[in-house]
Amino acid sequence: MRGQGPHGVLFHMASNQNPCVSTRGAFLTHNKIFNKNTMNSYINNNCKIFNENNINVIQNINKHCTKYIFVTDPPYNIKYQYNTYTDNLQTEEYYKMLWSIFKDNMHIIIHYPESIYEYAVRFQIVPKKVISWVYNTNTEKQHREIAFFGVNPDLSKATQEYKNPNDKRIAKRIAEGQKCKLYDWWHINQVKNISKEKTEHPCQIPVEVMQNIIQILPEDCTIVDPFMGSGTTAIACINLNRAFIGIEIDEKYFDISKKRIINHIGIFNTH
Ligand SMILES: C[S@@+](CC[C@H](N)C(=O)[O-])C[C@H]1O[C@@H](n2cnc3c(N)ncnc32)[C@H](O)[C@@H]1O
User: Looking at domain 65-223, which of 3.40.50.150, 3.60.15.10, 3.10.450.750, 3.40.50.300 is its CATH number?
Assistant: First the structure.
């Protein structure tokens, strides 16, 4: 089966693969869906990135039945200064835009707490889990929520250092070489201007945040970031050997992410 998506992107499905509309619970290898010669960027079988408006690509992803999970921090609608995207939609329009992207898919959204509540109430959708990402800043906004919609993370799939090493029982476990499973709050510093990983993207998220999220998700799903920015989610996927699809509308950020990904694959392969 073969079809032409918007912007001339060709999609290809083997005839024994059943198309389905919802991605929930559906399985299919996605490697055959995208024709690498016609894509605006293809890095390897495990990593495909698009310089497009996400809605165009998502319509095509949804037509095919691989099991996808969307993992992203969307624009926060707080008048952030992006290169081209205007981060200042009317509230109604903003939430409609988010829903149009996420409604058919399992999705994990990183956002400020009030916005997660508003999203959940507007669309009558309850997250299966919420994790707090906390960090130090000079503003009153010192945490974001990571809300898991339609998918239950398994916190025991990743470990961290105990935060209470002086507790007698914990000290014993540490002495035995045990680590604790991930807490439901993560203290991870934001990417600073002086950080080694910092790119020109104005609101780059730490790789560790994305890695923590992806590690506790089911392994048989492709990770899709429809607001890819500088490609942080892709870097986390490469580190964890997970299939990835990323979409970024802005050409400058897309180029940054592409270079970052190619460079990272190079470094990763030499280790
Ligand atoms: C909060 S940033 C993501 C930052 C990213 N997590 C990182 O670490 O670099 C949101 C991004 O979404 C992009 N964006 C906004 N609307 C979009 C659309 N309709 N399709 C694709 N990308 C879009 C913006 O250009 C911006 O780079």
Answer: 3.40.50.150
